[in-house]
Design a protein that fits this description.
Elements (H helix, E strand, L loop, with lengths): L3 E4 L4 E6 L4 H10 L6 E5 L5 H12 L3 E5 L2 E5 L10 H4 L7 H10 L1 E5 L12 H9 L3 E5 L2 E5 L7 E3 L5 H11 L5 E5 L5 H12 L3 E3 L5 E5 L7 E4 L4 H14 E7 L7 H10 L2 E4 L3 E6 L7 E3 L8 H11 L6 E4 L8 H7 L5 E3 L5 E4 L9 E3 L3 H13 L3 E5 L2 H4 L5 H7 L3 E4 L1
Parallel strand pairs: 2-14, 3-13, 9-10, 17-18, 21-22
Antiparallel strand pairs: 1-22, 1-23, 3-5, 4-5, 6-8, 7-8, 10-12, 11-12, 14-16, 15-16, 18-20, 19-20
Helix pairs in contact: 1-2, 1-4, 1-7, 4-6, 5-6, 6-7, 8-10, 8-12, 10-12, 11-12
Bound molecules: uridine-diphosphate-2(N-acetylglucosaminyl) butyric acid.
């Protein structure tokens, strides 16, 4: 099995270009099957989650042409058959085929999705939305058949602003008859990106990016060309890294607005950065004050950056605190960081961790526990003394486009072995 080997301690300078957002493209690709002509998506990152979605599309007999950074999807010849357990379980985002196939064919047959085991991650809110639109759901041993004679617009209140449920309900409602209103909808930038994509095809979606989204059903969706927004979590990962060992390191091709919570916290801690229109240059940081973060739905501090912030916190001048409110099991990476010297305490309910600062991290043999946990180890290895070997890197490659190349280009010693 491949591993990532890193020799730490080198200052990094130059430019890291940010790729298209994983959590956007993984919804855009399933959404493309709602298009009645050809949908073209650009700024597509080269990550294995995209490969896994391509395999599902091929299984369904869609025509997909993938060139560097671009996919064209034509769904005229789709065969709406069962998406096998093997394909469904490859990734979390396979669940977007539920909304997309239900919206297009009024029927979907697939299994419970996969994804990082960072919590229980139920899909009850997605199903509640489909049922409200008129679908009948049959579930047995993680196998779902969701079907409807007719999908009819309605009012749906989400008990929690779930990203996945919001997007899935939009997908199912886009061609339903009448008007659907989602209240307490998620407001992440990825939701806006998906709504813009569908509106470019002729859908009528208003309010994406706020907590109330209105979808007026349409019959036909025409061809369109759409760009994936920059990945705010990839950008945030490298921004944290730059705050630790960057020397005028530029994080380029980003939307700084999407990173407001992280920028605020790093600035509070004493990081000196210059925020441009589409980039951030980190000048350096010397006196890292300890900080507290609490993960929340957007625009709160993103849970997907919490684990990487834990690595940052090991270098602060006192103890820092992370409160995780989204997932029940997102501190697993701390036990791997511990092998490199990190010291921490996790509260009994697993919702709060205190991370000790001023730790000299040392190279070690560690294992990725999940995607962002893996990224927290990469950052730790880059600042540590000596050599670190990270196993289970398939998690990392699911979400970080050309990570080895990007880091090598700014001076890191990193290779896949
Ligand atoms: N939840 C429910 N019921 C539902 C749906 C969600 O209880 O039906 C709960 C979840 O268990 C969780 C919380 O609500 O505790 C948030 O879940 P949400 O649905 O918002 O997350 P998701 O759609 O499963 C996406 C991203 C995650 C990211 C979250 C939050 C994708 C494929 N995944 O997951 O990304 O953490 O939104 O921003 O878009 C990652 O990139 O590392 C990652 C885990």
């Amino acid at each position: 099995m491949p591993k990532i080997k890193i020799t730490g301690g080198r200052k990094l300078s130059g430019t890291i270009p940010i790729s298209g957002a994983k959590n956007s493209v993984v919804a855009l690709i399933p959404a493309a099957i709602l298009c009645d002509e050809t949908a073209t998506i650009s700024n597509v990152p080269d990550i294995t989650d995209v490969d896994d979605l391509e395999n599902i599309l091929t299984h369904l007999n869609a025509r997909i042409t993938r060139t560097t950074g671009k996919v064209e999807i034509n769904s005229s010849d789709i065969i709406n058959k069962e998406i096998t357990a093997e394909l469904s379980k490859k990734l979390r985002a396979s669940y977007y085929f539920m909304g997309a196939l239900l919206g297009k064919f009024k029927k979907v047959d697939m299994y419970f999705p996969g994804g990082c085991s960072i919590g229980e991650r139920p899909i009850n809110l997605h199903l509640k939305g489909f049922a409200a639109l008129g679908a009948k759901i049959t579930e047995e041993d993680n196998h779902f058949i969701i079907e409807a004679d007719k999908l009819k617009g309605t009012n749906i209140y989400l008990d929690f602003p779930s990203v996945g449920a919001t997007i899935n309900i939009i997908l199912a409602a886009v061609k339903a008859s009448g008007r659907t209103i989602i209240d307490n909808a998620a407001a992440e930038p990825e939701i806006v990106n998906i709504a813009t994509f569908l509106n470019n095809m002729g859908a009528k979606i208003k309010g994406a990016g706020t907590s109330t989204i209105t979808i007026t059903g349409v019959k036909y969706l025409h061809s369109c060309f759409h760009e994936v927004i920059p990945d705010r979590i990839e950008a945030g990962t490298y921004l944290i890294l730059a705050s630790l060992i960057g020397e005028n390191l530029k994080i380029d091709n980003i939307i700084p607005n999407h990173l407001e919570a992280l920028i605020a916290k790093l600035t509070e801690s004493g990081v000196d950065m210059e925020v441009g229109i589409d980039n951030i240059v980190v000048k350096g940081s010397h006196d890292r004050k300890p900080i507290s973060i609490k993960t929340l739905p957007h625009p709160g501090f993103p849970t997907d950056l919490q684990q990487i912030m834990a690595t940052y916190m090991t270098q602060c001048r006192g103890s820092s605190i992370i409160e995780e409110t989204i997932y029940e099991n997102r501190f697993q990476n701390l036990y791997e960081l511990e092998k490199m010297g990190a010291t921490f305490k996790i509260r009994k309910d697993n919702k709060k961790a205190t991370i000790k600062g001023k730790i000299k991290l040392k190279g070690a043999k560690v294992s990725s526990t999940d995607l962002r946990g893996g990224a927290s180890l990469v950052v730790a290895a880059l600042i540590a003394d000596g050599t670190t070997t990270i196993s289970n890197i398939s998690y990392i490659l699911r979400g970080y486009d050309r990570i080895v190349e990007k880091l090598t280009n700014v001076g890191a010693k990193i290779e896949i072995i």
